[in-house]
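Late entry, evening session. Most of the bench is empty. Finally got around to the prediction I had been postponing all week. Sequence below, unchanged from the version circulated by S.P.
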Amino acid sequence: MNEQLVEPILELQEVCFRYPDGSVGLDKCSFSIQRGNRIALLGANGAGKTTLFLHLNGILKPKSGRVFFNGSPLDYSRQGLHNLRSRIGLVFQNPDSQLFSASVREDVSFGPLNLGLDNETVKSRVEDALKSVGMLNCADKPVHNLSYGQKKRVCIAGVLAMQPDVLILDEPMAGLDVAMQVELTHILERVHTEGMTIIIATHDIDFAYQWADFLTVLVKGSCASTLDVESIPDSLDNFAVYGLGVPRVAELHNHLVAGGLINGVGTLPRSYQDLMEMVADIPTYLNNTLEQCLTNG
C-alpha cells in the first residue's frame, strides 16, 4: 500500500530575492520542512540563511517564486501577516534587536497581547514561557540589566508565549558560553517534545549533527543539499565539498569502524558521549572477535 504523502508545514518553491544594492539573497531556492522536524540550516556567511528566515515569516517577499505555509501561499496582507507571525516565531541572532519593553514580563507579554488574548490567558502564557526558559525568577527585572544569554532566553520566551507551530532561531548559540549552550539545547529539546517544529541556522556542524533530524546546506542563496543525519557518516566526502567541515564524531566513528575497533552495528553516535560509550566497549569487542577467530580456526 502506498503511503500518503505528508504536506510540508513550510515550503519555498524557486524563490528568488535581490537586495536593493543588487546582491543576491536567494537564487531559485527550493526548501521544504515537515511538521515536527528539527532542521539545521548550514552555510557560509552570506549564503542566504537569514534571508531565507525572513521569507518564512513574511518580513521579506520573493521577487519570484512562492512561499507556502500549511500548503497555502503566504498572504501578505496586514491581517495575513499578523496571522502568519502568530504561527511562525522568529528569534533573531542579536537579542537587542528584538527586546524593547522595560521589563522581562512586559516584553514577553507583548506578543500574546497583540493576539487579542484576555489578561488571564496572557498571564498564564507568560508564566509558562518564562518557566520553560528558566527565567521566571527574572520576570520583573529590567531588560537592560540582563546578561546576553538571559536576553536570548527572554527572546525565546516571547516567541513561545505566542504558542507558534514553528520556532526559527538565527544563530542561537552565537555569543553563549558552553554552559549556556547546554541550557539552550535542553530548552529546545523540551519544546520539540511538545510537538514544535524547529529550524536553526548555525555554523557549528558538530552541534547540528548532534541535535537535528536533517541538515540543509545553502550555497549562494540556493539549497544545495538536504541530508538526513543518519546518512551523514556515509556522505562525509560529499558533505565536505561545501567547506563547512564534517561532524567530528561521525568522522572518528568511521575511522574506528574501518580499523576494526568497533563493529558499526546499531545506533550511530551523535555526540562525544555516545561515542565514548561505544569506545568503552572496545576491549570486550576485541576479545569477542579473538575468541571467534580461535574458535573458527
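Two things to note before I forget:
The chain has a mean pLDDT of 88.
The CA atoms of residues 39 and 199 lie 5 Å apart.
Will write this up properly tomorrow.
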